[in-house]
Amino acid sequence: MALKVALLGCGVVGSQVVRLMHEQADDLAARIGAPLELAGVAVRRLGRRRDADVDPALLTTDAEALVTRDDIDIVVEVIGGIEPARSLILAALNSGKSVVTANKALLAEDGATVHAAARAGNADLYFEAAVAGAIPLIRPLRESLAGDHVHRVLGIVNGTTNYILDQMDSSGASFSDALGEAQALGYAEADPTADVEGFDAAAKAAILAGIAFHSRVTAADVHREGITEITATDVASAKAMGYVIKLLAICARSDDGRSFGVRVHPAMIPRTHPLAGVREAYNAVFVEAQSAGQLMFYGAGAGGAPTASAVLGDIVAVARNVLAGARGPEESTYADLVVHPMGETVTRYHVSLDVADKPGVLARVADMFAKQDVSIQTVRQEGHGADAQLVLVTHRASDAALSATIEGLRELDIVRDVVSVMRVEGEDAS
Amino acid sequence: MALKVALLGCGVVGSQVVRLMHEQADDLAARIGAPLELAGVAVRRLGRRRDADVDPALLTTDAEALVTRDDIDIVVEVIGGIEPARSLILAALNSGKSVVTANKALLAEDGATVHAAARAGNADLYFEAAVAGAIPLIRPLRESLAGDHVHRVLGIVNGTTNYILDQMDSSGASFSDALGEAQALGYAEADPTADVEGFDAAAKAAILAGIAFHSRVTAADVHREGITEITATDVASAKAMGYVIKLLAICARSDDGRSFGVRVHPAMIPRTHPLAGVREAYNAVFVEAQSAGQLMFYGAGAGGAPTASAVLGDIVAVARNVLAGARGPEESTYADLVVHPMGETVTRYHVSLDVADKPGVLARVADMFAKQDVSIQTVRQEGHGADAQLVLVTHRASDAALSATIEGLRELDIVRDVVSVMRVEGEDAS
Lengths: 430, 430
What we know:
The structure is a homodimer.
Chain A: E1 3-8, H1 12-23, H2 25-32, E2 36-42, E3 59-60, H3 63-67, E4 74-77, H4 85-94, E5 98-101, H5 104-120, E6 125-126, H6 138-144, E7 150-156, H7 159-171, H8 175-184, H9 193-196, H10 199-213, E8 223-224, H11 232-240, E9 243-253, E10 259-270, E11 282-289, E12 293-300, H12 304-324, E13 338-339, E14 346-355, H13 361-371, E15 376-382, E16 389-394, E17 397-398, H14 399-411, E18 415-424
Parallel strand pairs in A: 1-2, 1-4, 2-3, 4-5, 5-6, 8-10, 10-13, 10-18
Antiparallel strand pairs in A: 7-9, 7-11, 9-10, 11-12, 14-16, 14-17, 14-18, 15-16
């Protein structure tokens, strides 16, 4: 008896899912214990030319009828976005069908509803493809590390921005030139907002934090800054100090372990950190757990075939569960930890100031840091006269204290401009 | 109702398992849906001082009685070695109890028997900790990549040898000095044979190859060479050419996909390869799959706490299965591919020759390569007169052809010595 799969969406990822289900049919059947049958493909328009070789008889525009069809065992959603994806997934789960999805936006915005429907429908909800494409990450976090205590997740989870920052780092290009190149190569979309403003990474960060800390997290909990204001000078100056700038998604417990923060922003990391070597559009996620220590997962974070690989892995798992009458692990939010506000985040900072070149400047600047209890690790003056710059790196301090310091600095007459403020991460890592 | 766990062995890993089960009891119970209870610990001698705080009433020297006790749900084996581990695991599985083990030697030598017992007993057999300690690798390979087609697995799976080679690379130390340091730091054992001769890595390679290619592989199928003959000169010369020497476990399909090879040997890899940056005693495994592309998994490959983290992750998975009356994925050997002999392995080679410094030498050397159809990519002469050396790097050629070439070279009067022959791997990777 074949297990029947309904596919929602037949774009870049969907057409690869169709191809792989076809090409690897024998292997998939052997691994599952029963063949898979593609029983229907919901698309927006029937006439469109597709990459995939889909039997036209399988195509339908009535996705709602497809997901509730009695003979369907597994629903695979690769439409993306909130609606109609959410309604379709809920309809499938409500009728007891297991769902495999790659939909990070939905899970980050309204995961609670979807997970509750899975529980109520006694159905599986698998979503490996929602974060970091082909990189096995959801399964390791929710299964392999189920006996451990995760302290921190530090990830490069957006390939577009990593490509742009890597180009800026290796060629000295400006942000807009690097973005243009990424667009020309298909790494960035015509409207790059979701990537360069960090929305995509923030959705992934919310999903990762929820799993890592067994709590409920939504995209709204994520502090988000994009990379549009990173200049070639920032990149060059980081490089000169042995750092590289990456857009990081960071989920970290507070020192007392009772709350955690979730944030997406550009940060300087040492070139010796394993994440520093992640080039081009690759993704990588660094996990620090109490017993496991430091782990890193690296690979292609996007693209049709890599994402389809993750979807297929989930289909195999769900299909085995269907055959065994079993269910995979469900959402785990028992710890119910609080997401603390960004002001409570503790990290280090790199601050560049345009200053007047006269005696006493450093003392007044240092005093402003001291007033907020922000301790300075290194300070260095670059240039002279009209070009004088002070570059400071702090010890660990709260975001609130650093913000108050910066505000105070802006009011000093000897500070002509706060040129850049950048967080420094990954210093403890070997 | 608590799930009862029997622990076999209470050494470096076992005592960490006890500690974590105790310290994380509440989290484990919440994640599983029921508490775990340590119901018995089998040890060799009762009086011994232990790191773990185990209730003496739980200790027993009668492991056999413990594993078949009616109230035991899960048996955790961290004794290691073939016997008595095998008999105990088989007794547990035969009585329908699921098993979590870290035993690479047993799985590599006689996995077939153990897996068959799991099937017959309708019980789970989980072994994430058997390969690369805390790094989630078994689960990603057998579950996340279940919908993909793995071409190649390339791993640093032995921390001791990686520490030694990394020391040789960074400080120019000799093999014996680096080994001495590794022993002083506790990274290498007093008798380092299992590590430095590649036996440990070979067992892990056999397990990885079996899972990656859905075929049965034993340690005897693995071509194995250790690192004891690597000299400081080899390391320096690799470094000068932009390479680093690593002990690699390589599982690779043949070009036609019908067979595969499994081997453990030192190899030169480019310093730009993600595996090149794996320092000290860390492990990392690079996987190339058809759709997922290049993936890498990095972390601590050994040690009590990291290995216990992997064991605990498996205990949670097995416990959930016990509660649900379900079973995890079982051994998958349906593909039944053949392991090809080492002679059929195709790769590139770096060859150093001590030669007489006279006209015509290069022509005669090149001719010997040509006779065996081994094509030369680069050749370089170093030194003059008595110190003249030829350094050649070949294109891809079979191990058999290269061996025949080397044999031929040894017989040439103008070749005073074949100084080193080293495989070159990882050149295609970005």
